[in-house]
């Protein structure tokens, strides 16, 4: 194929057109442009010969069409309709018979055939056809002719074949049209015997209520349905809703009967069928009940929802909500039942994360028994059962449970039992909270020696816990044993590893300040500076001296500024800022630290990853101190002076005729002067040249 032609046939511009044309628009325009076919001319038949010619021509056309489309039933029906329009019934019957030979099971052919015979009052022919086709049409045909016994006889024979529900209902409607109520009742009795299902009974009851106004008979049918069908078929929400609505409409006491039915249904129905029943019951109570009844229905519905949601037994949030719901109703039996079922759902694994929510079920249960039910013995059994048999103390424990149990025993005035319980907890599974609670209990009881022993055991169990040391020291301070407190602080400060060491030093300093011992505070600060001379310690030390003597505070600031290394610009800047604030408040004619304050400048530096690649940039503050800048300038001037002196020496040697390879004079880069060793070498070299 020629590439030029191929390129010419391709679409060069593939952008969408501003006006889009759909296929529907193309077809509509095409149809509009088509010329309408001229209508066939009107043909008028004036004599018998023309009529015969017309019939012959039409029959030939139909025969050709049925020969070409033998199984197209519409062609056959049009052929029969043409013969019917010509009132040639013999030919029309012949066409229908030929059609039935082609498709003997097509009900439409039979119906059209029978309707033709009926229109022209060929009743016997129509009966013969109706016996082979729809029985609805047959009964309607006989009823239209006024032959009710024949129609009833057709229905009787039909009901012997046990047809579906619509056939029975049609039979009943036939009898009701002629006011044969007893016959209609008998037909419905046969109907429920033929179809013993719940919808059949409901139709029977509704018929008696609506058409015969037989309220007692309808109620008896509802009761028969439950008795004859049993729990398997009648125990459904459809049955109870229909029965309750019937009682609500027709009973002399609709509220009591309907409410009884609803409650009975909610107690006996499967849970899968309850939602619709709850909705109907709630609607009923809103119409006929009071506030208490409505709330009762809502609570019952929520109770059912919780029963559905607790399929996951370890979903303890559902149990909490369920228990609160029952507590709001105030029924102790239901509340205890819910709690018993909830605490029986033990977590599947001994993992404390899974047990955290579960253990609160025990706590809430015990609290309810103590505070709401006022049953202290049952509450104590709950605490004891949870601690002794439920919590696996060898793997983990819950300090909250021990503390709550001990507090309960104290409220019951069982102090020995409470002390023994806390001692057991400390021996088996010590926790910070248990120690603190035991110490607090002994402190309230005034047992000083017991408190000291507990504090000692506490710091022996957790020697790195700063809070334990601080509590012990504060306890001794409250007793007036300041020397003991100092000894405890000293021991804590000498510990190699501490979780929050600054808490120890702060508490120690606060104690000495409270004791009005500034020398002791200074000694602590000096010890702390010897260990960690951070800027926070210097600032805190200076602020302490500010309250005593501003001159001492200024001296601390000066010491700190000289001590902090120059490679820690952030700390130096922080100290200078605090010093500046101090001078602004307690300023004297002495020079202030403004001259030492650095200039700040935002800069960026790369963020280098573990692989050595730059992953981004971060901003930081660059500090430029005046002293550092002056020192850098002095170093640069010294180096320039040394370079100039070196150049002069080289020029002098060249002028005197010396070799450029003579030993050069060593220049001190700090001062720019020649070193002693350089001068000695130069004198020695000069003497050797003169001797030669």
Automatic annotation (TrEMBL):
User: Main location per UniProt?
Assistant: nucleus
Q: Which domain of life is it from?
A: Eukaryota
Against SUPFAM superfamilies, the record matches this protein to: TPR-like
Is this entry keyworded Ribosomal protein?
no
- SMART domains recorded: HAT
Q: Where are the TPR repeats?
A: 73-106
- Pre-mRNA-splicing factor Syf1/CRNKL1-like C-terminal HAT-repeats domain segment(s): 74-289
Task: Give the transmembrane ranges.
Answer: none
Q: Which UniProt keywords apply?
A: mRNA processing, mRNA splicing, Nucleus, Repeat, Spliceosome, TPR repeat
Instruction: Extract the ranges annotated as region (Disordered).
Output: 584-611, 645-692
User: Which ranges carry the Pre-mRNA-splicing factor Syf1-like N-terminal HAT-repeats domain?
Assistant: 306-463
Cellular localization per UniProt:
Nucleus
Report the InterPro entries cross-referenced here.
HAT, HAT_Syf1-like_N, HAT_Syf1_CNRKL1_C, Syf1-like, TPR-like_helical_dom_sf, TPR_rpt
Q: Which PROSITE patterns match?
A: TPR
PANTHER family the record matches: CROOKED NECK-LIKE PROTEIN 1, PRE-MRNA SPLICING FACTOR
The family assignment reads: Belongs to the crooked-neck family.
Q: What does this protein do?
A: Involved in pre-mRNA splicing and cell cycle progression. Required for the spliceosome assembly and initiation of the DNA replication.
Spell out the protein name for this chain: Uncharacterized protein
* Species: Paratrimastix pyriformis
The beginning of the lineage is: Eukaryota, Metamonada, Preaxostyla, Paratrimastigidae, Paratrimastix
């Amino acid at each position: 194929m020629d590439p030029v032609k191929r390129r010419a046939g391709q679409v060069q511009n593939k952008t969408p057109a501003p006006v889009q044309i759909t296929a529907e628009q193309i077809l509509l325009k095409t149809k509009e442009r088509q010329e309408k076919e001229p209508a066939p001319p009107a043909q008028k038949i004036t004599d018998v010969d023309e009529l015969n010619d017309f019939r012959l021509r039409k029959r030939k056309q139909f025969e050709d069409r049925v020969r070409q489309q033998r199984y197209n039933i519409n062609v056959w029906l049009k052929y029969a309709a043409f013969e019917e329009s010509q009132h040639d019934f013999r030919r029309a019957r012949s066409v229908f018979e030929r059609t039935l030979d082609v498709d003997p099971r097509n009900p439409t052919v039979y119906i059209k055939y029978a309707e033709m015979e009926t229109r022209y009052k060929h009743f016997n022919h129509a009966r013969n056809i109706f016996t082979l086709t729809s029985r609805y049409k047959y009964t309607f045909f006989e009823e239209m002719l006024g032959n009710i016994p024949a129609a009833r006889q057709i229905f009787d024979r039909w009901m012997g074949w046990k047809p579906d529900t619509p056939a029975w209902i049609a039979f009943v409607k036939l009898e009701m049209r002629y006011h044969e109520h007893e016959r209609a009742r008998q037909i419905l009795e046969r109907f429920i015997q033929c179809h013993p299902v719940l919808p059949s009974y409901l139709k029977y009851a509704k018929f008696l209520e609506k058409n015969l106004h037989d309220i007692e008979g309808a109620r008896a049918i509802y009761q028969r349905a439950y008795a004859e069908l049993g729990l398997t078929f009648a125990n459904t929400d459809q049955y109870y809703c229909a029965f309750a609505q019937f009682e609500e409409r027709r009973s002399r006491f609709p509220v009591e009967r309907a409410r009884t039915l609803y409650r009975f249904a909610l107690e006996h129905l499967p849970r899968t069928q309850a939602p619709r029943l709850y909705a109907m019951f709630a609607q009923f109570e809103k119409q006929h009940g009071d506030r208490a009844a409505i709330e009762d229905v809502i609570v019952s519905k929520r109770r059912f929802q919780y029963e559905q949601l607790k399929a996951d037994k370890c979903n303890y949030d559902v149990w909490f909500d369920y228990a609160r719901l029952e507590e709001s109703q105030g029924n102790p039996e239901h509340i205890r039942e819910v709690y018993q079922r909830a605490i029986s759902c033990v977590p599947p694994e001994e993992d404390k994360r899974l047990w955290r929510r579960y253990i609160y079920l025990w706590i809430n249960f015990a609290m309810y028994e103590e505070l709401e039910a006022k049953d202290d013995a049952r509450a104590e059994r709950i605490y004891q059962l949870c601690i002794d048999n439920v919590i696996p103390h060898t793997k983990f424990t819950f300090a909250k449970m021990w503390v709550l149990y001990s507090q309960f025993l104290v409220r019951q005035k069982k102090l020995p039992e409470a002390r023994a319980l806390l001692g057991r907890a400390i021996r088996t599974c010590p926790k910070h909270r248990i120690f603190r609670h035991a110490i607090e209990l002994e402190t309230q009881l005034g047992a000083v020696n017991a408190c000291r022993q507990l504090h000692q055991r506490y710091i022996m169990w957790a020697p790195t816990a700063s809070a334990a040391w601080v509590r012990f020291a504060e306890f001794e301070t409250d007793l007036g044993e300041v020397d003991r407190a100092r000894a405890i602080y000293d021991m804590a400060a000498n510990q190699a590893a501490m979780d929050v060491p600054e808490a120890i030093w702060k508490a120690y300093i606060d104690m000495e300040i409270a004791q009005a011992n500034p020398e002791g505070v200074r000694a602590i600060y000096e010890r702390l500076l010897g260990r960690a001379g951070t800027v926070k310690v210097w600032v805190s030390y200076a602020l302490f001296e500010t309250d005593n003597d501003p001159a001492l505070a200024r001296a601390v600031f000066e010491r700190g500024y000289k001590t902090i290394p120059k490679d820690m610009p952030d700390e130096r800047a922080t100290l200078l800022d605090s010093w500046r604030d101090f001078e602004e408040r307690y300023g004297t004619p002495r020079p202030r630290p403004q001259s030492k304050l650095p200039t700040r400048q935002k800069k960026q530096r790369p963020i280098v990853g573990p692989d050595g690649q730059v992953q981004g940039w971060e901003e930081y503050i660059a500090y430029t101190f005046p002293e550092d800048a002056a020192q850098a300038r002095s170093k640069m001037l010294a180096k320039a002076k040394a370079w100039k002196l070196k150049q002069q020496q080289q020029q002098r040697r060249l002028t005197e005729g010396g070799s450029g390879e003579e030993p050069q004079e060593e220049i001190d880069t700090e001062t720019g002067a020649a070193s002693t060793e350089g001068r000695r070498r130069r004198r020695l070299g000069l003497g050797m040249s003169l001797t030669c």
